[in-house]
Amino acid sequence: MSTRRTVSQKHVLYSEILSVTSAMRKNSRWAATTYFMNTRASALGSNMGLRMSTPVHDVENRRSLNKEIDLMAGFQELKRAMRDVEDVSSVPLPSILGPFFAIIRSPLSTGPITSAALSSLHKFFTCGIISTSSVDLDAGLVELSSTVSHCKFEPSDSSGDEVVLLKIMAIIQDCLCGFGSVLGDVEVCEMLETVLTTACQMRLSETLRRSAEFTMNTLVQTCFSRLHVLDAVLEEDKLNANLEEIEGEVKMSVATDDASSTIGDDASTSAPEPPVSAGPRIQYGLPSILELLRVLVNVLDPNDQKHTDSTRLTVLGILNTAFEEAGPRIPDFPSLKALIIDPGCKFLFQLARSDNTSVLHAALRTISTMFDTMRRHLKLQQELFLAFTIDRLAPPLPTPKQLNKRATTYAGSPRPGTPAPETPLLAPAEQEKDNSTQPRPLVPPAQGQTRDLLLETLNQIARHSSFMVDVYTNYDCDINCENLLERLIEFLTKSVYPIHHHDHLDIQQQNAQFLCLDLLLAFVNDMANRAQGASQSWPSEYPAPESLMQIKSQKKLILSAASKFNAKPKTGLAFLEENGLIYADLSSEVSKAQSLAKFLKSCSRLDKRLLGDFISKPDNIEILRAFIGLFDFKDKPMADAMRELLEAFRLPGEAQQISRITETYASIYFATQPAEIKSEDAVFVLAFAVIMLNTDQHNPQVRKRMSFEDFQKNLRGVNNGGDFSPAYLQNIYDSIRKHEIVMPEEHTGQLGFEYAWKELLTRSRQAGDLMVANTSHFDIDIFKSVWKPVISAIAYAFITFDDDYIIQRSVAGFRQCATLAGNFLLPDVFDFVVVSLSQATGLLSENLPAQVPNYPVVDVEGQSVTVSNLSVKFGTNFKGQLAAVVLFNIVNGNGNALREGWTQIFEMFQNLFLRSLLPTRMLQMEDFLGGVSMIPLRGSQPQRQASRSEGGGLLSALSSYLMTPYSASSEALPEATDSDVENTLCTIDCVASCRLDELYSQIMYLDLHALIAAIRALEALAHDRTIAKLRQESSDDGNPAEQPFSLPYDPASVFLLETMVSIACQTPQHIEDLWPIVFEHLSGLLSTPEQYSVLLVERAVVGLLRLCLIVAQFPSLRDQLYVSFDLLAGLKPAIANSVAEQVISGLVLIVQKHQSVIRSQTEWNLVFVLMRSTISHPEASRLSFDLITNLVSEGPEQHVSPDNFPGLVQLLDDFVSTAGLTIENQQHRGRRRDTPAATSTPQVERGKKAVDLLVTLKKWLSTSQVPSMSKEQVWRQLWLPLLSSLSRQSTNASREIRHNSMSQLQRILLGPHEIFKDSSDVQREEIFNRVVFPLLDELLKPQVFVRDPPGMPESRLRASALLCKTFMHFEVRESSNQSDIRILWIQILDLLDRLMNADRGDQLYEAIPESLKNVILVMQATQMLVPPSADDKRSQEQRTLWTATAERMERFLPGFLTEIIPPPSSDPPSESS
């Protein structure tokens, strides 16, 4: 393997010697070699012992030329010394470099010569002659440092001279960066000072200064990198131990107005030889770094006139490099940290107000780097800078005109802008009165490039993922700090909106909006990441999160209290006491005055002027004493004590108040036993003198200042009769003269800043380090306080900006806010996101048409596409489509977080429905009869009929509606262009991407609160389109006609109703909570159904009954079932008939599935009322009869009870009556048309079956026991209604029904039923008066006879037989002999009389006497009807009955009685005669 061959170091050395000497010979000083030879001859002769004579005139010349000759001779000596040396590295380095150093240090040298020497040194570094293995390397480098730092040469042309300086900096860089480990602090400081001075020399060229600046940055980077390896504790200890020695040796300065230290000056002296140290050298460390940092910081002082902005600009870049290299390490060294905190931050913050844009930029860059690397140790400094930045960036308040324009520009979401509570200012700016209730104009707002720089810096500082949390925990949760997070968010959100509302925003303003929005979105993104698991644990060494939140709450109270106190102290004190902020610590040691004084002194939010006025009032003398007593004046000089007191509040202007304060102070200060003061009065006078001196020395209106002699003269004899010592008074005088006592709210400008900075330093000693933790502990509280303006700003940006990146970020922000709202269970936030996005979609319209326009329908690939104005417009609205997709993707899966936002969701559903853009599933109506059908979009109001003669049901109800939107329209269809179709297809694709059907399905699985909110939203929308709209339009009608105002068909109202009912029916587990909402709407529709379209009423009825099916399962809602039945039963006949089929279909299902919930007679009666309302409907009556048949028929499904028995009887009776009416109507039509009437119809058949069912009920009565009812109740409530019904139907127009009813009635009356055993007189009377007699009365009526003239005589005959048999069965019995039957008997005879004479030509005329004969014979046999006899032993009842019978019968059957019962022959004449 071959080794790499390089030129020998000895060759390089010789070459460089030749290079330098050649440059020297070009100069006239070294042009003649005789100088060299003469010099050497003299030396040689001396060495050999010869005496050489020298001419007198040459002595002076030789002396002047010695220096020049020595410079050249040094190179010759080096060449001779190296002639026999093979290894250059074995020669001590100082020997090799000595001649080169001599040239560089010599003021005789010129620029080219010095440049050649410097080039040689650089060559030695690169070729390895100067290396870590060099002999006496440390001594050589020390001499090198001193040499290049004291380089002297004669100036020539400026460009050549600057080349020398460039090479000097290259050498320094080679030395420090390559061999820094052997350099000490002194050498490093020398080299750094050389480069820094070069960089700051304004008369040097820009190129040289920039090169020097670049080199300085490299050197600083190298030096500060040492901090990473230094032991901070050890270095600080060494620094403190050798402080005086180091301060003397390690010293740097920066010259900006003179270059004599670098460019040759004949008057300057050559540099002294470097000291040779004994022992190993210590590598440079903290002392040189500290000195470098001190120099850099001091240059930044804006009040130092020695340095220009250009110099500060250079130093700011260097300082930034230092922070970038070792910023996190600097605070570990207390000496460095102290420099950064003060005055470093102080000068940097002052430069942040510079009008020089370059300086401002550099200062802001350095500040941002400082906070990035050292923010943990700069808590209050960061607060100051952030507050200052926000104050400068805060936009001016818009005018009302601008606000109005803003409202019209963006009305999407509620505007952000609840003002954050204000806090005291500590900022290098114009101070305003501290009032926590008023905004404060701190500094003029930044404009132009300054504003951009500040915004960029703010963004840079806030880029930490934990920044917002850190701001909140360190400042908002600190009583003594501002609510910075609130202020920052308020500023950012307001800044997203334009400050000036021009038609075209300027680029600068738009950039500012983008920056603020970007920071807001970063804040949301960081919070979302923490919520998803990127959160860190809260460090245990920090205060517990709970305690911080408690402080936050207490801070809020204190801010309120301070605000109230500043407005009116009495009100503030009451608030403080009410909330336990004062007087909570009362004890034997703490009085009320002391407790209040503690608060007044510790609360920085109070108005200092008001505070001074309050404590100095006569009534508050105890508070004043307690307040001043809180100061520690022990061993404090008078001036310092007065300074501390007067900076705590604003001294009032009234002399008496000042006197009270001064007296109290004198008492407390004298109690500390101050030196030289002999009495309390002396303190009092001295305090007044200090106040006067302070005013005299620092009031600009005072022209002639008080001298020390004047001050001393004023205080003669006041120290208990004596004088204060001159030294004592001199100290007070000097202290006040040099440092004004700055009273609060009194000064502005630099003096105010100095005071504020001093306060900040005082607070920083107690504030501790900045707490940094990317934790989610506080996210919910932060999010709760800022979500509304943040989302509003995001929404505004989404709607307004066209930048793709901004839109993309805004979409992400919406998603993340929605996710956070779900995680934090904040439905209000989720609602706000949905509202904001929904308004951006363009799918919400303020006024929907009452009737859907006639939109064209085109066929696209076999799919019918409706082209509407909305579909075309939405298809071109990219942002709207994006917002819709984002919105529904957010809501999908997060429905439980939604509350009020459901209104917007369903509004969009409604809008899409009216344009045929919803999925098919959401357009269907469910029914009991025909499954599902589509909701028609257009229709005409059908005529309601009182009854229907043909079957129909739901389909007949919809017969007048168009089942497709346009098929039957007579309007001309507008033509759809290809562009319209394409845009509509875009809309359809977007709607498909929104997955509306998935969202609709998810609604069924929502938690209760979200589900209730969804149903309420639907109900509210439906209410607005029906009940509220009807009320409004009715009131607008003005002239009500005879017919009530009715709304036209509105498909949207049907859609909303169907959606609401469908959701409620598919969530039966929540019906108890949903029922009141839905029922309110349904009852509103059904209370005035004639004012709505038929379809809407039918859907309301169907929905109500579908819900009743579910309600029946819940005992708690049982009463609501019958409220619903009652509502349906109250429908007017025409309405009831139009919805009869729906009513009975639902009712059948309810009764079949939930018979157990129908218990009481009242409940059954409501059911029967609904069933009765359907009897006239052909199809509905069939269903009703099937239901009652199931209830009554014998078998397992029979459900007859005492509660429903009367209702069943009545309902069956109605069915039978309906059959009779049908027969009569047929007969009427038959007579009118001269055609025979049909006798067999469904109604008649049901009537016949109804009679059989009545018989079935009789069987149930005969076999059932009703222990809960007495015999009389059983008779009255069960048997009597049944008998009355059969009695009524015995006059039915249908002969078959009539005879069947009469036969069944006879069987019952004459049968051996338990109810008739031991019957009472009342019962027997009711049998005749309410059953039998009404039957005969009806049959005798002509209008009844005409129902069936051929068959009615037979019915009368049967009825007369029934009458006689019933009378004999119940009255003509031995057990009934005691009852008085005279009235009943006479009534029977009356009826028989009427029957005989009704039609003398029929068989009834002959049959009645025969029946009567049988009755009389039976009555005679039972001794009820006894003729008179000779002895006449009859009872009074028998006599009366015989007499009445004889009299009545003689009227229609003369002699009939005596013919049947002849009187005895021996008997006297009959009484009847």
Overall description:
The protein has 1473 residues and is mainly α. A two-stranded antiparallel ribbon has the order 1-2. Strands 3-4 form a two-stranded antiparallel ribbon. A hairpin with a 5-residue loop joins strand 3 (924-926) and strand 4 (932-934). Helix 47 packs parallel to helix 50 (1161-1172) and helix 59 packs antiparallel against helix 60. Mean pLDDT is 80; it is low at 33-42, 52-65, 258-279, 398-442, 941-970, 1234-1238 and 1466-1473.
Lay out the secondary structure.
Blueprint: H1 9-25, H2 34-47, H3 56-82, H4 93-105, H5 111-127, H6 137-149, H7 158-179, H8 185-200, H9 206-225, H10 232-241, H11 243-249, H12 286-299, H13 309-326, H14 334-351, H15 357-374, H16 379-393, H17 400-409, H18 448-461, H19 467-476, H20 484-496, H21 507-534, H22 545-567, H23 569-578, H24 592-602, H25 608-615, H26 621-629, H27 638-646, H28 655-670, H29 680-698, H30 708-714, H31 726-738, H32 749-767, H33 779-800, H34 804-823, H35 827-841, E1 857-860, E2 863-866, H36 869-876, H37 878-891, H38 902-914, E3 924-926, E4 932-934, E5 938-939, H39 953-957, E6 961-962, H40 978-994, H41 996-1003, H42 1008-1025, H43 1027-1037, H44 1051-1065, H45 1071-1087, H46 1094-1111, H47 1118-1129, H48 1133-1138, H49 1140-1153, H50 1161-1172, H51 1178-1192, H52 1205-1233, H53 1242-1263, H54 1271-1289, H55 1295-1310, H56 1321-1339, H57 1342-1345, H58 1352-1370, H59 1382-1398, H60 1404-1421, H61 1436-1452, H62 1456-1460
Antiparallel strand pairs: 1-2, 3-4, 5-6
Helix pairs in contact: 1-3, 1-5, 3-4, 4-5, 4-6, 5-7, 6-7, 6-8, 7-8, 7-9, 8-9, 8-12, 9-13, 12-13, 12-14, 13-15, 14-15, 15-18, 16-18, 16-20, 18-21, 20-21, 20-33, 21-33, 21-34, 22-23, 24-26, 26-28, 28-29, 29-31, 33-34, 33-35, 34-35, 34-37, 35-37, 35-38, 36-40, 37-40, 38-42, 38-44, ...
